Amino acid sequence: MQPIHVPVLLEECIELISPEGEPFENDALMIDSTLGEGGHSQAFLERFGNLRICGIDADGAIQSRARERLSRFEGRVEFFNEWFDEFYANYPSGLKRPNLILFDLGISIFHYELSGRGFSFRGEEPLDMRLDGSKKTSAAEIVNGFDEESLANLIFLYGEEKFSRRIARTICERRAVKKIETSAELAELIYGAVPQNARHGKIHPATRTFQALRIAVNEELSRLPRALFDAFNVLEAGGKMGVITFHSLEDRIVKNFFRNLGRECVCPPNVAACVCGGKPCAEILTRKPVAPSDGEIKRNPPSRSAKLRVVRKITDAGKMRLCGETF
Predict the structure, then answer these.
(1) Which residue of 92, 109, 292, 302 pairs with 296 in a disulfide if CB–CB is 3.0 to 4.6 A?
(2) How are beta strands 307-313 and 282-284 bridged, if at all?
(3) What is the pLDDT of residues 295-323, one digit of tens each?
(4) Are strands 77-80 and 52-56 parallel, antiparallel or unpaired?
């Protein structure tokens, strides 16, 4: 039996991002910006009989699993195989504005256990990590091609790994003898690079480095601010947007963007007088991020670092860009 991804914070999402009031309850459109295997979408479709969903995913392989999972909702689901930032930047002209938007920025169990692309350090797989196979740069090309300083900076910045320089040095020493080609090979190198007392913590010593490589390969942090801004402007007034993050770098981007949406003035400090109109663009529905319960963490350990933030739109955020501050 193949493993199925368990959607995190599911009940919290349904409670906070549910369609409510006219016109949403009769003709609501939700965009699942990170469809994955379709877990969140399935729950929303089951709970709200008049809801339609557009599912976006850059990975055609995992989207095919979602198509099968959601096949019984034929006529209520439309699929788009592309990156979410590109979708929102070129929003289809024939598609109505959505009432609900959800981003779940986690990586599916499919990618770790079934994709064969080296996302997990527990398997002997090609060191790839591309969600979209058409992208040019793989994790192997970064590991074998970046100079030591650039590699160390990447691991520190995107992985928040305090042993980044030791890890980068070990990688460069090994690749001078033999190209690093598999996930297992890289994980073993990292295990040997960190101090002995750091090898047996709560997470594997390679966890943060693998996270950093995945983020870099798929340009995750550079895509996110653009996607949030364009998605919010596409959203129907009164609609809700929720974002689930899994590490501090993502959450910082979302927190700052939502905070700016809720401000009465979003002009930067060097502007002498307010030019943005002095009105908030959104109502923040989660003053503090929503975290999984102890029960959910016990049932689904990968949920432990998840955080959900939700806003309700009042008006477009175009003024924020004019003020030079989009997130």
Answers:
(1) 292
(2) antiparallel
(3) 999 998 888 999 999 999 999 987 544 33
(4) parallel
Give the pLDDT score at 327: 35
Separation of alpha carbons 9 and 285, rounded Å: 16
Residue 235 confidence (pLDDT): 97
Q: What is the number of other CB atoms lying within 10 angstroms of the CB of residue 33?
A: 27
Helix or strand run (H / E) with residue 41: helix 39-47
pLDDT of res. 138: 96
Q: Which of 162, 212, 157, 216 is nearest to 186 (CA)?
A: 212
Helices of type H across 90-242: 109-113, 139-145, 148-159, 164-175, 183-193, 207-218, 220-234
- Per-residue CA distances from 161 to 42, 188, 280 (Å): 36, 16, 37
In the chain, the N- to C-terminal Cα span, in Å, equals 43
> Percent helix, strand, coil in the chain (nearest 5)?
45, 10, 45
User: Which stretches of the chain score pLDDT less than 70?
Assistant: 1-4, 21-26, 266-269, 275-277, 319-327
Give the H/E segment covering residue 136.
none
> Residue 172: CB partners within 8 Å, gap ≥ 6?
147, 148, 151
pLDDT of residue 119: 85
How far is the C-alpha of 208 from the C-alpha of 159, rounded, in Å? 5
| Length of the chain (residues) | 327
Give pTM, 2 decimals.
0.89
Distances (CA, A) of 167 to 118, 151, 192, 289, 313: 18, 9, 9, 33, 44
